[in-house]
Design goal:
The protein is of the alpha/beta class and 298 residues long. The chain has one domain. The protein is 54% helix and 12% strand. A 6-stranded mixed β-sheet has the order 6-4-7-2-1-8, with helices on both faces. Strands 3-5 form a two-stranded antiparallel sheet. Strand 1 and strand 2 form a beta hairpin.
Length: 298
C-alpha cells in the first residue's frame, strides 16, 4: 500500500519552494509522459510533471522544449513568482497553525511522540519545533525534510523549470488554481486522514527518499502503467476521500477550463502532476471521452 506521506511529497514542494531553476542535463536523457490533444483549429500539449527532482536533474527532453516553443500559452497548476511563493508560505502558517489547546503532541500516543522526537532530532529540528502545527502541516514538513537531505530540491521541480523556460521565451503564463485553493485541500482534510498522514510521515521518514526515487524513475521513463498503479489507482482504492478531493474534483474543474480553451484556436501547453494526466479520470481519458483526438508524443 502506498503511504499517504509519499503521495503528498510532490504537492508539498509548492508550499516551501522559492523560484529557481536547476541546471538542465543534456536534452533527450529522459522520456516523460507528453500527450497532444487536437481538434480542427486547436492543439494542446498535456505534460505530466513531478514537483520535486534531484538537484541538477533535467525536467524534459527536446520534444518537450519544442512543444513549449510552439505554444502561446503555458498552463501550470499555480503561478510561480516570488509574490506567489510568499503568499503560499504565509497562508500555510495561517491554515496550519494548531488550534488553541490542541498542540501536535495531543494527536499522538506517548510512543508516537517519542518516535516523532527521534525523527525531528535526526532531521535537525529543535525539540518541539512542530508542536504548534496542525497534523497535515507537520506531516508535510516531515515529508519534504528527508527528501531535501537526500538531494531532492523543490526548486528543481519540473513545473518551476517549465515556468523559468517559458518566462525566458516570453510566453503567456496561466494557472489552473490559486495558492489558497491548493492549501485549502490540505486544511480541509478530515482529522482521521490528518492523523494518518502524521503517523506515516513519522514511520516512513527514512524510507521516503527510496520510495520517491522509484516514482521518479517511473516518471523519467514515461512508465504510464507504473505511475498509474502507484500514484492513481492505489490512492483511488486505499484512500477514496483523498482521491475524490485531490484527483477527481480537481481534474473535473480543470477540464471545464481546458475544454473552454480548446473552443478557441492556437497552441497551449499544460503542465500538471502526472497523476492528473493518466488513469480512468485523468485529463487524457476525459478529453478522449469528449471526442477529442489524443495521442501520446513518443
Amino acid at each position: 500500500m502506498k503511504s499517504v506521506a509519499s503521495m503528498f511529497a510532490g504537492l508539498l514542494a509548492l508550499c516551501v519552494a522559492s523560484c529557481a531553476q536547476a541546471p538542465a542535463q543534456e536534452a533527450g536523457a529522459i522520456t516523460p509522459l507528453l500527450y497532444v490533444v487536437r481538434d480542427r483549429d486547436s492543439t494542446m500539449y498535456l505534460y505530466g510533471t513531478v514537483h520535486v527532482r534531484p538537484r541538477g536533474a533535467d525536467w524534459g527532453n527536446a520534444r518537450v522544449r519544442a512543444a513549449i516553443d510552439e505554444s502561446t500559452e503555458i498552463w501550470t497548476e499555480l503561478l510561480m513568482n516570488p509574490q506567489a511563493d510568499q503568499q503560499i508560505q504565509v497562508m500555510a502558517q495561517q491554515l496550519g497553525t494548531a488550534e488553541s489547546g490542541r498542540p501536535l503532541s495531543s494527536w499522538l500516543t506517548p510512543e508516537e511522540n517519542a518516535s516523532l522526537n527521534a525523527v525531528t532530532t535526526r532531521l535537525g529540528f529543535p525539540q518541539g519545533a512542530l508542536e504548534g502545527y496542525k497534523p497535515w502541516l507537520a506531516a508535510l514538513t516531515l515529508t519534504v525534510a528527508p527528501l531535501i537531505r537526500a538531494g531532492y530540491d523543490p526548486n528543481s521541480g519540473v513545473d518551476r523549470s517549465i515556468d523559468s523556460y517559458a518566462d525566458a521565451a516570453g510566453k503567456t503564463m496561466r494557472a489552473l488554481e490559486t495558492a489558497e485553493q491548493q492549501l485549502t485541500f490540505f486544511a480541509n482534510l478530515s482529522p482521521e486522514i490528518q492523523r494518518e498522514m502524521l503517523q506515516e510521515a513519522i514511520a516512513e521518514s527514512e524510507d521516503l527518499p527510496a520510495m520517491i526515487a522509484e516514482m521518479s524513475t517511473a516518471w523519467e521513463q514515461g512508465d504510464e502503467a507504473a505511475l498509474s498503479r502507484t500514484v492513481v489507482e492505489e490512492t483511488r482504492t486505499d484512500y477514496p476521500e483523498l482521491y475524490q478531493m485531490l484527483f477527481l474534483d480537481r481534474n473535473n474543474a480543470w477540464m471545464t477550463t481546458l475544454t473552454h480553451e480548446m473552443e478557441g484556436s492556437g497552441v497551449d501547453f499544460v503542465a500538471v502532476g502526472a497523476g492528473h494526466i493518466i488513469g480512468r479520470d485523468g485529463l487524457v481519458a476525459q478529453f478522449r471521452a469528449r471526442g477529442y483526438r489524443v495521442e501520446r508524443v513518443r
